[in-house]
């Protein structure tokens, strides 16, 4: 264990991974190997990996496939076209698209030149997308015809050129002849180009920026996260360690958005490097997902908690309608699963292993994970620290590093930690310290066996008369009520006490429980300062693509009438 720290003089507890000398937790997993060649780009690294499968990507709706051979030939063709357009190292290219088999193709073509991919949610408003464009200043954008209106302003007022992506699923494309749009071609045209060995290609290193992803902004303004080629290569080595043990051809379904770190890291890069086949859903639909599992004999199913919970609730109906016998593993990220959910899933799907994970955009998709069913049965945990990752638990008020089983802010350090926030030195300085430690903003503890437990978001703690109340604790209790389908707890401002807990609750279909009954239910289980003092019923809890509750939206709703 001592060798992981890089200092043989340090004594590390082999059970917890904790070193008292420097108050640091070291990963109990075997370290990953990193490239010794500093002049290496991410695309070259992925393309050089061996693979078992023949097919890289399948469009679940149309059945259109990209073999590995075709995929890498198209990357060369598109890279050649981009180079001839003048795209160079350091240029930013925007990718505005739903999930698509062409998403990885564009991403890796851009990255191969040392240029930078920035992605955005297709559901974002024109104003939100324009704001990101204003911040990141892309010189080129790839999008589908249906999303062109969201780029019209940026294209007409700036220098943004647009390349159209194929959209075989829409039979009625909009008119793209608007003079406000600077459309310069299509991806299909670029894919037909003969690759050129003499194209301009700048020297790219592990430290150069590969992506500019904008954080979810669940607690504040969205910020551009700068991740390097080295960050993603370390993440791919992590993915390879976790999922690359099988000798058979693995088939995954891309159920989460590719514009998000979860989807980008897994489906656009990690699984491609493993040589696995990815079946792509353009948007999530439970029936489409289950049909894809049945049709393509999917073995791995990545999910977020709300979808997994829905699968458990409808398990009997699902198993009657779909053949899911090929499924061997479910991967769940976004929030730890409760004992009830895990046991419910195992009861309904006894031959399927649940694996969980914890990560941030700022940690390039790495952080902690459970890699076996046994580890996942340590209920409530996010897992063991990722390979080559170090952690600290720090008192947010004093800055003092804490010990095993003590709760504080989780700090992370390792090869996947971001370079910083784009054009935001203040935010970078407040999140990354001079030693490279990332302040996650998550309130956590690590137990005697090295397992990480997330208590809550630090910034979302409710301060009631100086006492700290964790929304996640109250939400877990609420979800234990038989008549409650979903719930979220937020801080509600009050002149006398500062803040008090307010709950938004989704009733289960056919139930009529009252707000008073819900508050009484919680009051019997918590200390007086933790009681819910205001409650509203709502049709659904707003969440981001990774399943995190959008508390800021609920806070805005709750305080709009003050």
UniProtKB/TrEMBL annotation:
Source organism superkingdom: Eukaryota
Annotated transmembrane regions: 92-117, 259-281
GO MF annotation terms: (E)-caffeate-CoA ligase activity; ATP binding; trans-feruloyl-CoA synthase activity
Biological processes annotated in GO: phenylpropanoid metabolic process
Segments forming domain AMP-dependent synthetase/ligase: 51-422
UniProt xrefs under PROSITE patterns: AMP_BINDING (PS00455)
This protein's record includes keyword Iron-sulfur: no
Pathway(s) it belongs to: Phytoalexin biosynthesis; 3,4',5-trihydroxystilbene biosynthesis; 3,4',5-trihydroxystilbene from trans-4-coumarate: step 1/2
Entry annotated with the keyword Nucleotide-binding: yes
Ranges where the AMP-binding enzyme C-terminal domain occurs: 473-548
Keywords annotated in UniProt: ATP-binding, Ligase, Membrane, Nucleotide-binding, Phenylpropanoid metabolism, Transmembrane, Transmembrane helix
Family: Belongs to the ATP-dependent AMP-binding enzyme family.
Protein's UniProt name: 4-coumarate--CoA ligase
Organism: Cinchona calisaya
């Amino acid at each position: 264990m001592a060798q992981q720290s890089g200092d043989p003089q340090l004594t590390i507890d082999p059970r917890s991974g904790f070193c008292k000398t420097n108050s640091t937790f070291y990963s109990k997993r075997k370290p990953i190997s990193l490239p010794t060649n500093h002049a290496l780009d991410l695309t070259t690294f992925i393309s050089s990996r061996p693979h078992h499968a023949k097919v890289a990507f399948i469009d679940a709706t149309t059945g259109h496939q990209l073999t590995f051979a075709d995929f890498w030939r198209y990357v060369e063709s598109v890279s050649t076209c981009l180079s001839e357009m003048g795209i160079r190292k350091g240029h930013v290219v925007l990718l505005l698209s739903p999930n698509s088999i062409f998403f990885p193709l564009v991403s890796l073509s851009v990255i191969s030149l040392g240029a930078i991919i920035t992605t955005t949610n297709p559901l974002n408003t024109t104003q939100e997308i324009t704001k990101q464009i204003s911040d990141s200043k892309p010189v080129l954008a790839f999008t589908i015809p249906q999303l062109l209106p969201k780029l019209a302003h940026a294209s007409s007022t700036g220098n943004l050129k647009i390349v159209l992506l194929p959209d075989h699923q829409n039979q009625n494309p909009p008119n793209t002849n608007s003079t406000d749009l600077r459309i310069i071609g299509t991806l299909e045209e670029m894919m037909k180009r003969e690759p050129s060995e003499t194209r301009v290609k700048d020297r790219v290193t592990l430290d150069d920026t590969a992506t500019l992803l904008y954080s979810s902004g669940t607690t504040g303004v969205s910020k551009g996260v700068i991740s390097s080629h080295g960050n993603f290569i370390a993440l791919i080595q992590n993915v390879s360690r976790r999922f690359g043990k099988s000798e058979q051809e693995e088939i995954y379904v891309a159920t989460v958005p590719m514009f998000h770190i979860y989807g980008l890291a897994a489906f656009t890069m990690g699984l491609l490097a493993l040589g696995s086949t990815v079946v792509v859903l353009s948007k999530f639909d439970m029936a489409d997902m289950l049909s894809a599992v049945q049709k393509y004999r999917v073995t791995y199913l990545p999910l977020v908690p709300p979808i997994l919970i829905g699968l458990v609730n409808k398990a009997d109906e699902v198993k009657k309608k779909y053949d899911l016998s090929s499924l061997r593993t479910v991967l769940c990220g976004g929030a730890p699963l409760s004992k009830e959910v895990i046991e419910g899933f195992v009861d309904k799907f006894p031959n399927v292993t649940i694996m969980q994970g914890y990560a941030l955009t700022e940690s390039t998709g790495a952080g902690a994970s459970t890699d076996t069913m046994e580890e996942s049965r340590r209920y409530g945990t996010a897992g063991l620290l990722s390979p080559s990752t170090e952690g600290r638990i720090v008192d947010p008020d004093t800055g003092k590093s804490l010990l095993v089983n003590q709760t504080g802010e989780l700090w992370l350090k390792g090869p996947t930690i971001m370079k910083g926030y784009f054009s935001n030195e203040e935010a970078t300085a407040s999140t990354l310290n001079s030693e490279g430690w990332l302040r996650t903003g998550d309130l956590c503890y690590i137990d005697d066996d090295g397992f990480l437990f997330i208590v809550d978001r630090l910034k979302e703690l409710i301060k009631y008369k100086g006492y700290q109340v964790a929304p996640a604790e109250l939400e877990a209790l609420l979800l234990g009520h038989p008549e409650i389908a979903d719930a979220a707890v937020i801080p509600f401002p009050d002149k006398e006490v500062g803040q008090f807990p307010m709950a938004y609750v989704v009733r289960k279909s056919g139930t009529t429980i009252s707000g008073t009954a819900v508050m009484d239910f919680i009051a019997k289980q918590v200390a007086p300062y933790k009681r819910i003092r205001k409650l509203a019923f709502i049709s659904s809890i707003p969440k981001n693509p990774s399943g995190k509750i959008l508390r800021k939206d609920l806070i805005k709703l709750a305080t709009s009438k003050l």
